[in-house]
Amino acid sequence: MTHVLRVNPIACVGHGICAELLPELIEIDEWGYPIVDTRPVPPWLERETHRAVAACPVLALTLQHAERRK
Amino acid sequence: MSDTQAQGQRTTASDRPVGGSLRLLPPVQGATERLSAHLARNGQARCRGTALVRAVGQAGLTGRGGAAFPTDVKLAAVAGASGRKAVIANGAEGEPGSVKDAVLLRHVPHLVLDGLQLAAEAVGATEAYLYTGAWLAGWVRQTLAQRADDVPVTVIEAPPRFLSGQETAVVSRVSGGLSLPTFSPRRVSERGVNGAPTLVQNVETLAHLALIARHGPDWFRQLGTPAEPGTTLVTVNAGGRRTVTEVELGTALADVITAVGTAVLIGGYHGTWLPMTTALSLTLDNRALRRHHAALGAGVLAVLPRQACGLVETARVTRYLAAESAGQCGPCLNGLPRIAAAMAELAGPRPRRGTVQAVERWAGLVTGRGACHHPDGTARLVRSALTVFEVELGRHANGRCSATTHHPVLPLPRAEEMPLTDEDWL
Amino acid sequence: MINSAVLWYASRSAGAVALVLLTVVSAFGIAVNRQARVPGLPRFALTDLHRNLSLLAVAFLAAHVLTAVLDTYVSIPALAIVIPFASGYERFWLGLGAVGLDLLLAMIVTSLVRGRLNRTAWRAVHLTAYLCWPVAFLHGLYSSGDLRQGPLFDLAIGCALIFAGAGTWRLVSAAGRLPRARRVAAELSAAERERQTSRSPRAPQGPRR
């Protein structure tokens, strides 16, 4: 089951904790907001990804099934 | 082209439908089609319910609000949902250069309202809404009073915001909140007005749907291209006038634009600039336009006259787009004002080195990172301007400009109408 | 049978520790909200500390209330732990303690199921922290004389100053925060002003809140 990371841009206020915990997939732009790699999360990063999702103080980061599209 | 919209009235004398009344608009220009005339011209709907959804699919009708999403897919999605359902006829028309929806509601309201009823019946909705600007709301309510509709229609007023036609913003306003885009993993067809599955369709799409219900899919496909069948309304902003024309999809742009100019903006303020020579070689269908990274959008075309400067006009529009940001998402809130300020510098004499690169960088940075496509569309407009007006950029770098007039060309609301409080989003 | 005095002292010391922890938790919570950076501490550490210390506080509170109930010197019914003003002994001040505990439990439970909760609902419950701490503080101050004399008095003052300081910081930032609609206009004028001054167009700007 593949997952993709998505950030809720309205909820996000730029804490940047996600990028600290998951630098392989998340980078912070010049304004403090996350640039998220939206490709399927590789299996060796599953744990760190779940941790980053849980660590967001505003729960802006979510993990969704790859097939689901907005 | 005046920037002012006198007393909120948007359609003016020059907005008469022209170009022949192919299907949607009545044969007599400028007339308002009353219920009896509408029924006399168009007859009664024969195809309804699930059969209508099938017919719409066979006809290949796509949304006329800008996204060109297959209408039957949307209908089926909501029809397949359970529980309370709603339909919204979206006539908000936030794009300043577009008046086609206003023209439809003013001149053929019954066709649109029939489409709304047929769509509601097809998806099993018990609530129907018509969402339009304050200047038309009263007129629509008057028209509704003359009808005996099965599904009661509530007219909701849309604020004069650029984003007011955005699907989730529409649902948010109709649900009683501000007209701001929302972010949800669920589409509005699953969770819309007050949580109910909702069908949102542009008023022109509903008008076409109402005609398909009467004449069938084969009739619909008689005009247009096989891949993009039917007709569409375009608003042409040229020579200081604004006209609404119904055209077959696939019509040569040269037949629609007769004004002289150096470039054409295709698709409104989230659209793409093309050099006049390129534009005149194209047809009005997304397949042809896509090859030049352009799209029809909501059918707004604007011609840049020889005496105007494309950079100056784009800078004006970019500032407007930045001011109309919902301000909810970091990248858009931070990026669009910087892009606008940089474009203003590029529109003036001797911009600093690196400004073009900064705009390119910010355009890339904001694309795809908002809750809606406002940043993407703004980036698209700006990038196309930097490409098409590259020569002009060189002139400005040397302190020159090819504009011989300071008269603004592209239609925009007055600067004082910039949204400053939550009330401006209600 | 455990000596009643031991239970009584255990309850009071656990209570004191809980107060300190809740003070630190509140301060850290406000620091997270303000995106404060502690030199040497990564950002995620502040959030983790805030959450973990709140759980530690619950542990000490559990010890605090259980020893108080078990102690037979004064009669405190078990129900008084969560039902305010159900105790005969020091009905009001003890009752405040129950109020504080209820609020804390609500905050923690809603945070644990946050994914399933509406954003506004979570925030509304979490804002009761500003009620919870003062309530807990008053409970501590007046349920017994501990915090009103000796070194524990200094401790109580210290906690109050920390909470007041952090709370003021939070209030001031909330007061200075532009409403959404005005933020756009502010960004636009700021960007235009920057262009007027002779700064490099590539100068990176920090995030504006």
Task: Name the beta content range of chain B.
Answer: 5-15%
Q: Mean of the pLDDT scores of chain A?
A: 93
The total count of strands of chain A amounts to 4
Instruction: Give the total of beta strands of chain B.
Output: 10
* Rg of chain B computed from alpha carbons, rounded to a whole number of angstroms: 21 Å
The name of the CATH topology of chain A is Alpha-Beta Plaits
Q: How many structural domains in the coordinates of chain B? A: 3
The most extensive contact between chains is: B-C, 29 and 20 residues
Q: Low-confidence parts of chain A lasting 5 or more residues at pLDDT below 50?
A: none
Strand arrangement within the widest β-sheet of chain A reads 1-4
CATH superfamily of the largest domain in chain B: NADH-ubiquinone oxidoreductase 51kDa subunit
User: What strand line-up does the widest sheet of chain B have?
Assistant: 1-7-6-10-8-9
Mean pLDDT of chain B: 93
- Spatial separation of the terminal alpha carbons of chain B: 28 Å
Could you walk me through the main structural features you see in this protein, from its secondary elements to its overall organization?
- With 70 residues, chain A is α+β, with helices and mostly antiparallel strands.
- Chain A has two helices and four strands.
- In chain A, the strands form two sheets. Chain A has a two-stranded antiparallel ribbon. Chain A has a two-stranded antiparallel ribbon with strand order 2-3.
- Chain A is globular and about 30 Å long.
- By secondary structure, chain B is an alpha/beta fold.
- In chain B, the strands form two sheets. A six-stranded mixed β-sheet of chain B has the order 1-7-6-10-8-9.
- The relative contact order of chain B is 0.13.
- Residues 1-19 of chain B have low confidence and may be disordered.
- Chain C is an all-alpha fold.
- Helices cover 71% and strands 0% of the residues of chain C.
- In chain C, helix 5 runs antiparallel to helix 6 (150-176).
- The interface between B and C is medium-sized, with 29 and 20 residues.
